[in-house]
Amino acid sequence: MEKYQILVKGDRVSGIIDDWMYKGEADITLRKAKTKGCRVIETTDPLYAARIIKWLQAAEKVNIVKL
Predict the structure, then answer these.
(1) Which residues are registered as beta bridge partners of 40?
(2) In the prediction, which pLDDT does 13 show?
(3) 1-57 pLDDT per residue, tens
(4) Which residues are within 8 A (CB) of 19 and not within 5 positions of it... i.e. 6 or more apart?
(5) Which residues lie closer than 8 Å to 9 by C-beta, 6 or more apart?
(6) How many angstroms separate the CA atoms of 17 and 25, rounded?
(7) Element (H, E) at 16
(8) Which of 3, 6, 1 has the alpha carbon at shortest distance from 19?
(9) Which of 63, 67, 65, 47 is nearest to 8 (CA)?
(10) Nearest 5 degrees, angle CA 9-CA 11-CA 16?
């Protein structure tokens, strides 16, 4: 299993949360990032991670952690 850690700018987070509330299929965790003005969205769902990266085009950086 993999955990996707997606770094996004703070102003893009509301769009992702709105999309997540509409879709509601994946578990996500939102946390503050060390990078100023950014947040990290964590999920184990590869399809929703791809949606954030490709469709919403909100990712600044992506880190994949093996669990």
Answers:
(1) 7, 31
(2) 93
(3) 999 999 999 999 999 999 999 987 899 999 999 999 999 999 999 999 999 999 888
(4) 51, 56
(5) 37, 38, 58, 60
(6) 12
(7) helix 13-23
(8) 6
(9) 63
(10) 85
0.70 surpassed by pTM: yes
* 37 conformational bin, left if phi > 0, alpha if psi -120 to 50, beta if neither: left
Q: Which helix (H) or strand (E) holds 46?
A: helix 46-50
19 token code pair = 């999309």
How many alpha carbons lie under 13 Å from residue 5 in its C-beta half-sphere?
Answer: 12
pLDDT band for position 58 (50/70/90)? confident
